[in-house]
Design a protein that fits this description.
This protein has 177 residues and is an alpha+beta fold. The protein has helices at 2-14, 20-70, 80-83, 102-106; strands at residues 108-109, 112-116, 123-124, 127-128, 132-137, 147-151, 156-159, 175-176.
Length: 177
């Protein structure tokens, strides 16, 4: 009887889990794969944010042309809120034309900050005759690499190094896309 119990006990000891070394090797392999994949994921996210910013600037160009055609006595909107949706179920007007979505009208979308460069939105005889919009990454190097700008010409331009601001003047200082 004793011999049987000893064999049973030995058989039970042979069944064991993973050793610490085996677990460390698996963790090391997972970390190596993550180290390879994460930078590619971040670059893909930056590329998607930049594509969204360019698309949003195209939307702003189209919205401004539509606004100018719809409200010829006002000219161009010269504010994101004027192009934005109507609040409270009211009707569209030159103050809220409903031409862009609420995210873009807020000035922040997909890691970019959209702003009107107001220095070029001066009225002539009460009618606003031009506009400039900029799209700057909220966190350069993280949400986007490039700075974008567009104006009445409809050309979207970019800069690798500097944001487009009122002090930089017009959008023509960038490189066309």
């Amino acid at each position: 009887m004793e011999a049987f119990q000893v064999k049973k006990h030995k058989k039970h000891n042979k069944k064991r889990g993973f050793s610490l070394i085996e677990l460390l090797i698996v963790v090391a392999i997972i970390l190596i794969i993550a180290a390879i994949a994460i930078p590619n994921l971040l670059r893909s996210r930056i590329a998607a944010n930049e594509a969204s910013a360019v698309g949003s600037l195209r939307t702003l160009n189209t919205a401004e042309i539509t606004y100018n055609t719809t409200y010829p006595n006002a000219g161009f909107a010269c504010s994101l809120a004027s192009l934005g949706p109507v609040s409270g179920g009211g009707s569209v007007s030159s103050a809220a034309a409903g031409l862009i979505d609420a995210n873009l009208a807020s000035g922040v979308k997909s890691g970019y900050d959209f702003a009107l460069l107001t220095s070029n939105c001066a009225p002539a005889n009460g009618i606003k005759t031009t506009y400039d919009y900029s799209a700057n990454p909220i966190s350069p190097g993280v949400t986007g690499q490039r700075y974008f700008c567009t104006d009445l010409s409809g050309v979207i331009q970019y800069s690798q190094t500097a944001a487009f601001t009122d002090s930089t003047g017009v959008c023509s200082t960038g490189t066309p896309i």
